[in-house]
Amino acid sequence: MKNTLKFIFICLLACTVSGCNNVYIKSENANVNDKVYYGALKGRDSIHSDIVVFQKNSDLYCDGVFYLRSGTKSALKDNFNNSKMILGCNDGTLMNITWQFIKGSLKEGTGEGVDQYNNVYKFKTITKKEYEVIAENQKITFPNGKYSSNLKY
């Protein structure tokens, strides 16, 4: 039974993170002049996702990578602690966000982090319908190729 649950979980994890559906996010109240950021994650494999975030009513956009780090206990019983979201923006801002999924779900969670100027950013997952209201028909396209991203390693 335990192996069956692990197998089901791994299948769901692979489907969730590998692009079966985008996971949509938006910023919560932050000290960055209350600017709203919104975007989506699209799974690349079972651990990494590409991410694109836009600032509402602005030409600013950020893209980067999201990667899962499992907790110390069984992934079925524990949250995914300290997963990371690293974003580079077209204005030179670099965001480093620590992400916490809500226990038992890879589609709901919150993240908090800072940029190189110590501005605080807070994000949370939202539904596709919520995203569509915020985005006002903003189409998400993910960078393709290592030189097309704002995130430079």
Q: Distance N terminus to C terminus?
A: 43 Å
Strand order of the largest sheet: 1-2-3-4-5-6-7-8
What's the overall geometry? globular
Secondary-structure element string? HEEEEEEEEH
Number of strands: 8
The number of helical elements comes to 2
Largest pleated sheet: 8 strands, antiparallel, barrel
Q: Roughly how many Å is the radius of gyration?
A: 15 Å
- Strand-pairing-aware structural class: alpha+beta
Give the rounded overall mean pLDDT: 75
Strand content: 35-45%
Helix share bin: 10-25%
Poorly predicted runs of 5 or more residues: 1-19, 71-77
List the helices and strands and how they pair.
Layout: H1 2-17, E1 23-27, E2 37-43, E3 48-55, E4 61-67, E5 83-89, E6 94-101, E7 109-115, E8 120-126, H2 128-135
Antiparallel strand pairs: 1-2, 1-8, 2-3, 3-4, 4-5, 5-6, 6-7, 7-8
Walk me through the structure.
This protein is α+β, with helices and mostly antiparallel strands. Helices cover 16% and strands 37% of the residues. The protein has an eight-stranded antiparallel β-barrel. A hairpin with a 4-residue loop joins strand 2 and strand 3.
